[in-house]
Amino acid sequence: MVGYFKSFITALVEIQFIKALVNWSGYLSAACMVSLVIVTIFDVMMRYVFKNGAIGLQELEWHLFSAVFLLGAAYTMKCDQHVRLDLVYQSHRFNERHRNRLNIFGTLCFLIPFCAVNIIYSVPFALESFIHSETSPDPGGLSNRWIVKSIIPCAFILILLQSLNDLIRRLKDTD
What we know:
Layout: H1 2-13, H2 16-48, H3 55-78, H4 86-89, H5 96-131, H6 146-173
Helix pairs in contact: 1-6, 2-3, 2-6, 3-6, 5-6
């Protein structure tokens, strides 16, 4: 039974789909960042050089900004560059085994439940926006607000998948 469980875990770790999906989200986040810089430069030039600003450009900046961080979160986690409490995690009293157990505990007790709650509540939030064809309340604002709202559950699904992938790898390393 234990051998079967180990081979199952090994097979899951070797699934490249999650890694490819998270890599794709990282590339998309980077593309959103480049787009954000271009849109911001254009918006600033229009406002201060030509004295002609646009509400739609400002909203696009907000949407791109949220996409950068939401889509980049899973990729940051995959690259092990996410924020931790370094005072505890990098302490000389913690060896790799302790850090591994701390990561397993944090993933099981905090990260997975946090992702689940966010997914549960953000899916209806985005779906309602899509059903009602929500647009910006500001004149000249962007339409299709459901697009930016749908990034929220997608991002937390990616984080959840990446955390499960990390959890499986860490459980395999505890042997």
